[in-house]
Write a structure and sequence with these properties.
Elements: E1 6-12, E2 15-23, E3 35-36, E4 41-42, E5 48-49, E6 54-55, E7 63-68, E8 71-75, H1 77-81, E9 90-97, E10 107-115, H2 121-134, E11 137-144, E12 147-156, E13 159-165, H3 186-198, H4 210-223, H5 245-259, H6 291-318
Parallel strand pairs: 1-9
Antiparallel strand pairs: 1-2, 2-10, 3-4, 5-6, 7-8, 9-11, 10-13, 11-12, 12-13
């Protein structure tokens, strides 16, 4: 595990749990340096004072808040350290809530909370058991990078996880983005629901970053002087083109079924009749048939059944 990013304690009522914060995620992106193409020398960023046009050493760089274009208020690190921040070295639990009540848009970075010394083992386990048994998550306040933040504590594989959260006033309203009212056919909605059912899965741990894999292969090939593989041709899509929504949904359902190895059934909206060889599948899109049509269909089927039985038998024996 990486080294701790922060040490302090969880304040759980009158219970104190010494803990260390360890990042729960890692960035696996392939990163590049800026280089001079003529000689591959590194190109670095230099911190230059725009008034003196000279490089400024790090020990002469401080913080300032811009009131106006011509007025900047300096703020020192000492002044920030003296700010009244009760959660400076504590994760203070302030409430327990249902997990479903937390909007995922508010959740930011994730961290594991590890015990800081064996003395913390018992209260740490106590909090974990309480969260598990109550089926709740804890909302807490804590200080991070010079400001107070809101956090969410939950259990993951016998460990307590801290998710940093945004304050309510940091979430923008999507009201202006909502499309105007539009007419949708019920069949289109049902077909979209069927597409979600077809693409549903219980485990998404198998997904990989295919772009990163291809980028690593490119770097390896170039470093070894190998010939680069021809890029795969992707499907071209015209942006802004008006499409037949139902046709697109049908094609999507069919493609999703084929990708999962489900063959032998057309992705269409009309009612599917069971085949004699293949058992009928459960319908997800309700067919809009009237009682009169259903009765007529049964009578027609019954009338044809007797006449069609013998020829059908001959055909099967011939095949």
């Amino acid at each position: 595990m990486p080294r701790p990013l922060w040490t302090g304690a969880i304040s759980f009522g009158l219970v104190t749990i010494p803990i260390k914060i360890i990042s729960a995620t890692e960035d696996r992106s392939v990163r590049f340096h800026q280089v001079h193409l003529e000689d591959m020398g590194r190109v670095r960023t230099r911190k230059v004072c725009e008034l003196e046009d000279e490089v400024v050493p790090q020990d002469e760089i401080g913080k300032g808040y811009e009131l106006t274009k011509d007025e900047v208020v300096p703020v020192t690190d000492e002044e920030l350290d003296e700010m009244p921040l009760p959660t400076a070295k504590a994760i203070e639990i302030v409430a327990f809530v249902d997990a479903d009540s937390i909007d995922p848009i508010r959740i930011s970075d994730s961290y594991f909370l590890a015990i800081d010394g064996q003395v913390a083992a018992k209260p740490y386990t106590l909090l974990r058991k309480a969260l598990e048994r109550s089926d709740k998550v804890a909302v807490a306040k804590f200080a991070w990078h010079g400001r107070e933040r809101l956090g969410l504590l939950r259990v993951r594989e016998d460990a307590i996880v801290l998710h940093s959260m945004r304050w309510p006033d940091e979430i923008r309203s999507p009201e202006s983005l909502t499309p105007k009212a539009t007419d949708l056919d019920e069949d289109e909605i049902e077909r979209a629901v069927q597409l979600t059912d077809t693409l549903a899965m219980d485990d998404i741990s198998g997904f990989r970053d295919q772009y990163r894999d291809a980028l690593e292969e490119l770097i390896e090939a170039k470093s070894e002087g190998k010939e680069l593989a021809e890029p795969a041709e992707g499907e071209e899509r015209e942006s802004g083109k008006v499409v037949d929504l139902m046709a697109a949904l049908n094609a999507s359902v069919k493609a999703a079924k084929e990708a999962r190895g489900e063959h032998g059934q057309d992705a269409t909206v009309h009612e599917m009749r069971p085949s004699r060889k293949t058992p009928a599948k459960k319908k997800t899109a309700p067919a809009k048939k009237t009682a009169a049509k259903k009765t007529a269909a049964k009578k027609t089927t019954a009338a044809k059944k007797g006449a069609a039985r013998k020829p059908a038998a001959k055909k099967r024996s011939a095949s």
